[in-house]
Amino acid sequence: AQTVTQSQPEMSVQEAETVTLSCTYDTSESDYYLFWYKQPPSRQMILVIRQEAYKQQNATENRFSVNFQKAAKSFSLKISDSQLGDAAMYFCAYRSYQSNSGYALNFGKGTSLLVTP
Amino acid sequence: EAGVTQFPSHSVIEKGQTVTLRCDPISGHDNLYWYRRVMGKEIKFLLHFVKESKQDESGMPNNRFLAERTGGTYSTLKVQPAELEDSGVYFCASSQTLGGTAFFGQGTRLTVV
Question: Chain B contacts of A4, Cβ < 8 Å?
Answer without folding.
Answer: 42
